[in-house]
Amino acid sequence: MNLKKIFFYTLISLFTTISSSVYAQKDYKLWLQYDKKSNPEIIAGYLSNLQGIVSLENSKTSSIAVNELEIGLNAMLDSKIQINSKSDGENKIIIGSKSSLNSEILKLLKTDFDQINDEGFIIKSISLKNKKHIIITAKKDVSVLYGVYGFLRLVQTNKPIQNLNIVDSPKTNIRILNHWDNLDRTVERGYAGFSLWNWQKLPDYIDQRYIDYARANASIGINGTVLTNVNANALILTPQYLEKVEALANVFRPYGIKVYLTARFSAPIEIGGLKTADPKDAAVAKWWKEKAKEIYKRIPDFGGFLVKANSEGQPGPQNYNRDHVDGANMMADAVAPFGGVIMWRAFVYSEHDASDRAKQAYSEFVPYDGKFKKNVIVQVKNGAIDFQPREPFHPMFGAMPKTPLMMEFQITQEYLGFSTHLAYLPKLFQEVLESDTYQKGKGSTVAKVVDGTLDNHKLTGIAGVANIGNDLNWTGHPFGQANWYGFGRLAWNPYLDSEVIADEWIRSTFSNDYNFIKPVKEMMIESREAVVNYMTPLGLHHIMDTGHHYGPGPWVSNLSRPEWNPVYYHKADKNGIGFDRSKTGTNATAQYASEVEKIFGNIETCPETDLLWFHHVSWDYKLKNGQTLWNGMALKYQEGVNQVKEMQDTWNKTEKYVDSERFKEVQMLLGIQYKEAKWWRDACLLYFQQYSGKELPAGVEKPTQTLEYFKSLKFPFAPGN
Ligand code: GCU
Fold first, then answer.
1. Which of 92, 195, 484, 665 supports an S-S bond with 185, CB 3.0-4.6 Å?
2. How far is the CA of 272 from the centre of ligand 1 (A)?
3. Could you report the per-residue pLDDT of 225-279, keeping only the tens digit for each?
């Protein structure tokens, strides 16, 4: 190679290294891009109100808050805003918690402070000695940090800051991510690489990622993280690992994030040398008490335990003829002296119970209402089966008024296309939260159960099974970040509108340009319904291929437990398709309040979106649009495919608004999604056609492969398993 060539190639490689690292940073920065504003007038407008930052406090958390304001504002407004210790002059932004405020400010904010809880914040334009300022304050420094992120969000999303009067508090106490991370760093149902927690290098090596993770969570108000998989390994409770957990807790603490662990019920045997884990055994109870003491000594603000017991083979109190109350209460006693909580999962169904799987959690847990200790909260999945693209709300919500229930959403897309498909989940979350349980009459929404207002509970929470891994972009799909973001925002306020959240996220992550926001927001809002349409339209559910849940597998029928087989759920035969859960079937509808039961239980009033969830419906049944069920179903599958095509068209027009890295990533992923949507459509329709015996209606593309071909596809290394 001649010198000229060498120089040329060096230049090229230098350029690609620089450019890819710049772009990689973009992806990595999530919704905290703090891009410089392109419009000088907007910048000038903001700067006229932001002449300096005055910090009244001195703590680790408050310096994080100041630093964040400084980085964010200076980057977005392309300036160097001064940090001062005194609020002389005008148009300062003053930050500090209540204890740092002088009497003049305190007097001004008296009624505002009365309105917020410990984690709430106040952002307000005030006048001190006739000088205008903005104050960001709260009762605790961590809540001031929430206020700072709230303020930065205003600037990120181009909102006015002249006359601010924001008084905001989170509506739930525990806003928590559940990581299904194993100690070997694989992630159950994880599609974004390996676990963030590098157990081998902890406690001495603190990866910058831990800090960035805490920062991202704090920015959306998440205040807890369960580090380990619900299918737990007892080793996490040994000193060797607790030392590492402690190191993580130390990193997360200034960001207001408490650490929780999953507790394997049989740990007293596995790591404690006991012969039993019977919750009524005094030695077992003592073991847990001592374990709690040991943990709290290291981590005084440890949150508590999340427990999956007697579910999918996990050990639990029933191994000793005890029940969930015995197990949960015994553990609750262990953490109670330290203020800890037990999040006891209600995701139970048994291979020895022949009744409808959808009924089992309710049947088992509702009789326990009122029997759990005060620091137990029962964690219930949003639907009665398992995080399907659409499920009617879980009938347990509202049915246990004397027990705090927390919501469990799944952010990772186990059943919605892994990290390959774009599916904006806050839309799904909102649909569930808005569902009316009617337990105390009209308006008894799931959100009111979850935030404690329906039954007056003080202990409340929302959990999300994380979609985060060590992929450079955290979530595998750039739009997966919106699901993490939206989860946090809804955990803070379960009444927020998912469209508003999408708007915020797009502006903070990509661009404030209306020409970008409008189509991309529409694409996001429609995306979840698209997935429902091409995977499980009209209330179909759990027809994914088994084990890994990747791709369609409606034909699977050979697994040992009936309820692990897709045929159990769709019940297609020559008469029709769907699971009869009405009075003529399993009567699962009776688990809802009578108003809801009436709606779901009657094929005429049941929303068509849930039709086959609750009814076995004849192929010739007339849908509301006049189509037969068979034709309507086929057209829904096609609609899902068409929607993905539209998503592609939308995205292809955004190139000039997005960095090329993210543009290409999303473009390629949408390409895969389109291919897989067609795969779903063709495989499912060919399979169901065997029962309906009918032709595909006009408008539905003919499959290009045979059913045998689809059945032959195997994915032994599908991720997340
Ligand atoms: C689903 C998922 C499992 C998980 C379980 C749970 O069944 O496939 O991987 O362990 O839910 O929530 O406990």
1. 195
2. 27
3. 999 999 999 999 999 999 999 999 999 999 999 999 999 999 999 999 999 999 9
pLDDT tens, position by position, 32-72: 999 999 999 999 999 999 999 999 999 999 999 999 999 99
Q: How many CB atoms lie within 10 A of CB 370?
A: 10
For residue 340, the SS3 value is: coil
Atom of ligand 1 at shortest range from CA of 189: 9
Q: Is the pLDDT of residue 198 over 80?
A: yes
| The Cα angle at residue 251 between residues 339 and 152, in degrees rounded to 5 | 100
Centroid of chain to Cα 670: 22
For β-strands 405-410 and 376-381, DSSP reports them as parallel
Residues with catalytic function: 312, 386, 414
Three-class SS state of 588: helix
Best substitution site from 412, 414, 545 to test ligand 1's pocket, by max atoms within 8 Å of Cβ? 414
**Ligand 1 surroundings by CB, under 6 angstroms:** 188-189, 230-231, 308, 312, 347, 386, 414
pLDDT in tens, 679-720: 999 999 999 999 999 999 999 999 999 999 999 999 999 999
How much is the pLDDT for 139?
Answer: 98
Nearest-CA residue for atom 10 of ligand 1: 231
Asked if residue 219 lies in contact with residue 142, where contact means CB atoms within 8 angstroms, the answer is: no
Q: Give the distance (Å) from ligand 1 centre to CA of residue 414.
A: 9
Residue with tokens 């806050």: 426
Centre of ligand 1 from the C-alpha of residue 127, in Å: 54
